C-alpha cells in the first residue's frame, strides 16, 4: 500500500476534468478509503467497503464511477449506467451533490430521486436521459413499477450505508432492485459496520469482492474529550440548557432517541432564546432540507437530531456532540462522536446518562475501549447563569395578558413559578356532552291524545266578536 503522504489524485490516472473539480474543492491527498478503493473500482472489481461518515467514502466511489463514464464517451444516449442506492433522502441529496461537484466539467448527467416530494419533476428529468441516478429504494421501486425507470443498461450498482438499510427494513426492497439490474458488470457495497446479515447479502450480490476495511479508530475518538454526567431524565432538559449557556462552543449536534424527543428538546432550547432546529424522519423534505442548510450556515447553530435522520450527513466544524440519550447500539456512539474533532480540530463529546442507561454506557466503553470521565454538574444552581434567568423572565413577561392590571400583576408574582419546559404530556381530551334523553309523556303513549294536541297546536285561534 502506498504512503498517503506521498500519494495524490494524479496517481489514479483520472481524467483532467475530474482532477480540475478535485482541485477546485481544495483536496490534494486522498484518504485511506479512497487510496484503497479507487484503483479496485477502476479495475472493475466488486468491493465490500467498511467505512464511516467523514472518511471520504462518497468520493471513493463517485470519482471512479465518473471516470468509467468518461471512458465510454462514444455512448451519447445518456442512458442510466450508474445507480446509487441510499437509505435516506438527505443522504441521497448529499451523494448527488458530490457527483455534481466532481462532474461539473464534463457532460455527465445525474439526478436524485426520493420520496417526500412530488414525483412528476423527477420523472421529467429521467425522460431527458441521465447517466447517474442516486435514489432511495422506495421511490425507485415506485417509478420502476410505473415504467418510468429501466435498469437494463446499469453497469455499476452502488449500495451505500447497507447496515442502515438493514436497520430500517429496506433490505428486501434493495434485493428487488439488485435483481432488476441483472446486466450490471460491477457492484459496490459500503457499510459502517459488517454484521452477519450484511456479510450474507454481500455473498449474494457481489462477485468475489475485494474487502476494504477502515477501522473505527480511523476516526480519532480517543483524541476527543469525552465525559459523562449522571442525571435522571426529569432533569436532563435543565442541565442541557445550562450546559449550552455555560460552554463556549461552535456548532453543536444533540442526539436524541425518538422523534418526539427531538421536537421537545429543540422547543425547550428555543424557549430560552437559543436557536435550535429538530431533524427527524417525520419532517417534510422541505423542512428537513431547511434545517440542514440553516445548521451548515450557522443560522441555527444547534441541531437536535435522531440517529436515522443524521446518519451519513457530513457536517463540518462541529465543536460539541451531546448525547441527550445514550444509543442502544454502541456502534452508534462512535458514529455520533466521530462528527467532532475532525481534521485535527479539537472536539468534545458529553453524554447525559440516566440510571436506566448505565447498561448502554458499559457497552460503549467496552466497544471503544475507553472509560468516560465522570463529570459533576450542579444543575440545581440556577443563579450562576444570568443569561438563562433573563431569558426565562423575558418569556414570562411576554406571556402576561396585555390587559392585566397592577393588582393582577402582584398576584401573578405571588403565585408559585411554573416550569416552562415541554414535558411531552398527552393532550387532555375534551369530555363529550351526553345526549339528554327525551322524557316520555302520556301523549307519546296515547296516539289519539297526541293527535288532538298537534291539531290544536296548529288550529287558528278563536276570535270574539268584541
Task: Give an account of the 3D structure.
- The termini are far apart.
- With 466 residues, this protein is of the alpha/beta class.
- It has two domains: 9-215, 3-Layer(aba) Sandwich (Rossmann fold), CATH 3.40.50; 221-387, Rossmann fold.
- It contains 19 helices and 14 strands.
- Helix 3 crosses helix 4.
- The strands form two sheets. The chain has a seven-stranded parallel beta sheet, with helices on both faces. The protein has a seven-stranded parallel beta sheet with strand order 10-11-9-12-13-8-14, with helices on both faces.
CATH homologous superfamily classification of the largest domain = P-loop containing nucleotide triphosphate hydrolases
Structural class, from helix and strand content?
Answer: alpha/beta
Q: Report low-confidence residues grouped into runs of 5 or more.
A: 1-5, 382-386, 403-419
Q: For the largest beta sheet, what order do the strands appear in spatially?
A: 3-4-2-5-6-1-7
Tell me about the largest β-sheet.
7 strands, parallel
Beta-strand content:
5-15%
What can be said about this structure in brief?
The protein has 466 residues and is an alpha/beta fold.
How does the SSE layout of this entry go?
Layout: H1 16-24, H2 32-42, E1 47-50, H3 57-71, E2 82-85, H4 89-102, E3 110-113, H5 120-128, E4 132-135, H6 137-145, E5 156-159, H7 162-167, H8 171-180, E6 186-191, H9 196-205, E7 210-213, E8 225-230, H10 233-246, E9 251-256, H11 259-271, E10 276-279, H12 285-296, E11 302-306, H13 307-310, E12 318-323, H14 330-337, E13 348-353, H15 358-368, E14 373-374, H16 386-399, H17 406-414, H18 442-445, H19 447-458
Parallel strand pairs: 1-6, 1-7, 2-4, 2-5, 3-4, 5-6, 8-13, 8-14, 9-11, 9-12, 10-11, 12-13
